[in-house]
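Check this.
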Amino acid sequence: MSRPPKEENTVKLVDTMADQLIDGATNPTGAVSIINYNGKTYCFSSSCACCQIPLAKAKVLPPNDETGGDYPKIGMWIFARQPTTFEQARE
């Protein structure tokens, strides 16, 4: 597994090579998303509902009532032009 990122408030992908997460078409390296927020690190394996590519372009949103004010949220907006391969999603 690659090193976790250190950037704050940004979604980054980390390759895990975990068999449970690998999908040859959309996630060949078993990548997960990592967020560092207010000194804490969060990991999730959520994917785009349309194409199943890991959420690399998601925006980190502040905590709100839904999260009890404790945990950040992520927001993903669907654009007319989406990446079509895993490699394009990582760019």
